[in-house]
Each structure stands twice: as structure tokens, then as C-alpha cells.
Design brief:
30% of the residues lie in helices and 23% in strands. With 686 residues, the chain is of the alpha/beta class. The strands form 6 sheets. A 7-stranded parallel sheet has the order 8-9-7-10-11-6-12, sandwiched between helices. A 6-stranded parallel sheet has the order 13-23-22-14-21-20, sandwiched between helices. A hairpin with a 2-residue loop joins β25 and β26 (642-651). α1 crosses α2 (104-111) and α14 (523-535) packs parallel to α15. The radius of gyration is 27 Å and the shape is globular. The structure holds adenosine-5'-diphosphate and zinc ion.
Amino acid sequence: MQKTPKNQEYKYALCLVDIKVLGTRTFSYLIPDDMKNDIKIGQPVMVPFGRGRKIKAYIVGFSNYLEEGIKAKYIDEILDNDAMFDLEYLKMLEWVANYYFSDLPTVLKTALPEKFFQKNLKKYRKPNKELKVLNTKKSKKQNILTEEQQKIYEQIKKVNAKTSLLYGITGSGKTEIYFKLIEDTINDGKNVLFLAPEIALVSQLTSRTIKRFGKNSVGIWHSSISEAEKYKVWQKLRCDEIKILFGARSSVFAPIQNLGLIIIDEENDPAYKQTMPAPRYSAIEVAKKLAELNNENGGTKIILGSATPDIKSYYEAKNSNSLFVLNQRYNNAALPKVKIIDMRMERGMGNNGIFSKYLIDEIKKTVKNKNQVILLINRRGFSSYTQCLECSTVIECPKCAIPLIYHSATHSHRCHYCNYEIKNLTKCPKCEHEDTLENFGTGTQRVEDIAGKIFPDMKIQRLDSDSLTKKNEHFEILEAFSKGEIDILIGTQMIAKGLDNPNVTLVGVINADLSFNLPDFRSSERGFSLLCQVAGRSGRGEKEGKVIFQTFNNTNIFLDKAREQDYESFYENEIEIREAFDYPPFSKIIRIILSSDNNFRAEKSAMEISMRLKDWIDKLSLSERLIVMGPAPCVLEKIRGEFRFNIIVKNKLDEKGHNTILSFLRKIILPNDIKMVIDVDPMDIL
Ligand code: ADP
Ligand code: ZN
């Protein structure tokens, strides 16, 4: 560790402030002599700002110099001797800012709770309502690892690599291994960060962990936790009062002391990457940076876990002897049998509905036997749309050029990019025929409506992103489901993962091929993993599980591999394609999006930047290892009224290549009507 400079030697402190018109910025202040012994990085202080105003700030650095022409004022008061973050923490944030082409103030805004800069925090001390999940009780019964689990656990303990990958088919007991590792870490006096990709999964893991370890020293951190709660968790973390912090993506910025272990469950989930807004960071990469920076006390280990690992994680783990595989399901439970139903045949037989006859029969059987059903609606891409049967016009968003999705609850058509909405549309906007509009595709609500008609006596519940907007709703739904109060749970991607309910014996996928068809190099990986994960929800207990994939294209080879849940064979296939086309892990991608409300100008500036970038790379003789593609119109050509063009750079030179590209991009000055977004390691290139 670098020697911490003695503060007495410095005249000025750099103070971080947050002011409405300026955003988060730093200013220099004089350190009064009587503070010199106490002042340190991360302390909250009061400083004068403007005319007679006092505001809260944080110490982020020291210096002996001042820019010319600036007259520094004195710091007023140290508000709390305990620092709210440290130098290492700031270094990590600086890395995020640099690597992801952002800036420190933007990163700070993402990382810190909003209440951070509030003058008086006393009134925020007490959050109004405790999160329901924290009321879970510790259970008396504790599981013992199986032989296979024990062996893998011991191997993981021995490995030297900072990051290990635990690849285990669904239901193999990855979580049980996490628990052992958590127990060891806590016994060593260290703390744990446990990440899940989505809030619903965070709640589930938290409740499962509390059953195991009790609720002492457990904390939660994600975007639907209130700012006051976040601030409270932050303070607890700084006093080392939390042993296990659960969270989604952003919790990787929580200042955990003495961090011994980071678990990243379902590590292949794209939700670990923030795409909008900046900083466009990956929580996994940030976690790796954290582990790299922390070498005290045995350092920090990372466990990535998945039933369908990210191709890059699997490749890296394989090549660094840090891949650990669980092959058996707990209790040797059989993998569920998957049946593929060709919906074109159904059409041929006169069934134009969204449920095949086979699926309907199986649902009836399952519920009759007092078991439960999960129905997945694949909504990646634009699976639902409204079309005029007279003139074939698809109702689109005028600003985004993507189909509008019909919401029956509000009788409105809505754009899921910009929120544009038309209410009570009864005639075609183009040919103006009345009553010729038909809804195609399958939103969750539509499936819920139709299921309600086919199965009038069953209890049907929908879980989608709408349920996440209310604080406890998703948790309550999942709880009701696990108590058997719901027969059929209908949802999107989010119900594909994590749910561990032994009473679920049937999983139906309404539209299995949708995600394979997107023009993106990761679409097979996404489609494969989604199907495997949702299939893994079936037959997790003693009872045998069944899975039904409905498809319009039963020749897709990935569908077959997903049917067999054969990740290794999928991987072998996929890694060859990645290598042949220089896709990750054989390169790193930087995506540059140029956009403007003027199509022509957007394209022109994209062409100019691409050309200059290629020239520059040529001059450096790097064009074999830094490959610039495009510009081309994005698949989503127009979003919120802006025309978008893509430039893709494949970097085969690691850090050097990365810095070369970013330093070029930093010098670009754009006209006011052109926007540029840089997405480093993008999750998709749509
Ligand atoms: P994964 O995370 O790999 O999908 P889980 O850890 O959720 O698997 O385990 C699947 C199911 O099997 C869970 O209900 C879990 O409680 C049970 N299970 C796994 N390992 C054991 C064990 N060693 N003893 C008792 N139950 C176990
Ligand atoms: Zn729109």
C-alpha cells in the first residue's frame, strides 16, 4: 500500500461539493492549523461557498498549490472524524471514470447516496419502514455439503487465482457452496459482498441467507432502497457493522471494509453492466478492480457463479485453472425433460392461439396434481406489436421507429424506449379503417388475459418490471408463489433466474426462438442461457420436472443444445465463431454511437470520425490489432427522435489499445447537434 501523506504538511484540502448548477466538483480550501492533525480523506466538512453560504463537502485530497488567481477560504468545521470513504476507494472510482470514458463527478453521482451532501442528516437516521425480507427467521436445519460439493469447495479454497468461476448446472447447489465460503470469510473476521443481477433475486438470496446465518449484520443495497436507507447502510459499512451486503449492480460501489469475498451469482447476466446513463460500467469488472487494489490481509477473492457462464468468463477460467464444475443436481435430481413444440404445425391444425394444445393439457395436468407452473414470455426484441389487417401497417413510435406495445389495462399503445403513448386507438392511423387493428406477439399482460380465459379456475399471477416499481410487491408475489398460493406465474426474463421452488414441475416458454434472432453477436449466448435457466426452474425437488419450448423454428441448433442443457457443447461451438470473427474474448469491443435529429449530419460525422480513427491507427501501424468497423446505422436506427450510427472497434491490444482509442476519442470536438456515446465492453450492439 502507498504511504499515506501526512496531512500536517499540506496547506490546502481538495473538497468535493455538490451544487445544483455545477454538479459534483472539487474546490481547494485552506486547512486551519488546529485541524491539521485530524483532517483526512473521506471526512465530511462544512465549507463556505459563495456569499455567506455554508455547504457540506468531503475531503478528497491535499495539496500545497493553488491555481493562479484563486483565493482559497478556510474550512469551517470537521463534521465527523470518521471518514466516509478512503483513498483506495477514490482510486477505484477514478479507474471507473477512465476506463469507461466517463469522469469522476459522474461516477461519484452513481456511487454515493444522494443524501450524502445533505447538511443535516439527523432526520434521515431512521428509515420509515424496514424491508420485509429482513423479517425472515433463521432456520434450525442446516444443510451439509454433498461429496461433490465438498470436493469443489475445497478446491476453490486452495486456488490462488483472485477470480474463480463456479459453473454448475441449475440445482447443483452453487448457493450451498457460497454459504460455506461466506461462513469461512466471516470466521476470518472479514466481510462479504453478494451480488445478484436483479432486485427480485437480491431479495430471494437475502432471505435464503438469513435463514442460514440469521439477520444480524446483513445489509441490502439496490436501486429501490430509499436514499435514507442507503445512507444508513453506508454509515454502518464504515463502522464495520455489516458482515454480508447484498446488492445489485450499484452495490459494488458500497464502501465495504475488510472485504474478503465477493460473490457474483448468475454472472453472465447483462444486468451487471450499466448501459444508460454513464458511467457505463460493469459491476464485475469493478469488482475485479476492487480485488486487485485490495491486497491487505489476504486480499479479496471473487467467485463468479452460473449455470450458463459468460463465454468470456468460461474461456478465462479454463485458461487459468480457476474453473470449477458441479455436474450433478442435488439428490441426483434428473434434469427436466424438454419438449419442443413446433407452432407452425399448430397453425396448420387451425390453432392460431399463443398456447399449443400440448402446453394447455400439461398445465391442466400439473395444476390438477397440485403442482405449479411458470410461463416465460421472451420479451427481448420487440415481441409484441399491433398491425392493421387491412393495410398491414405496424403501429410504430414516430420518434423511435420501433413497434408500440399495447397495454390493455390503460387501453394505450406505448413506446418502451421513450414512453410515447397513444390512448384508445381504434382505427388504423394510415388507412383509417375502423376495427382492423390486431395485437400480435405476446406481452405478459396479454398472456395473463388469455390464460385467465383458458384456465378460469386457476390462480394466475404476473411478475414483470411493473411489479418492481413497488417496494415490496415482487417479494410478496414470490413469497405467495413459494407458499403455493399461485398456480401459474407468468413473467419475462426475471422469472427465469434463481427461483427455487420444489413444487414447480412445469415450465412453458411461449416464444423460445425470439432472442436467437437479434442481429447481435451475443444473441445465441443470451438465448441459450435464458432457455437453460428457465428450464432449470422445473423439477427442483423430488418431483420430476417438464419443460416446453414453443417455437416457430425448430431447426435452430442452439435450441437443441438448450434442450439438452449442454453448455460445454454450446461453448465449443460458440467459441469457434468468436475466434473466427475476433469477437470477445478474442478482442475487447468499444462501441461509438453518433446520433443527431438530422439523419444526414449524424451519418456524416460518424463517417468522418471513423475515417480519422482509421487513419490514425494506420499511422501507428496498429491496424491489424485495432479493427475499426463502420459506421453503419444501428439496428435501433432511431431512438427518441435521434438517428443513430455505430462505429465498432475491436481491440486486440488490451490496455494499450484501449488507451490509444480513448485518447483519440477524448480529443474529438463535436458540433452542438451531434451526440457521441462511448460504450466500453458493450452488452449489445443493437
Ligand atoms: P443452484 O444455486 O446451483 O441452482 P441451489 O444451491 O439453489 O442450486 O440448490 C438447489 C436445491 O437443492 C436447493 O433447494 C437446495 O436447498 C438443495 N440443496 C443443494 N445442496 C444441498 C445439500 N448439500 N443439502 C441439502 N439440500 C441441498
Ligand atoms: Zn419512442
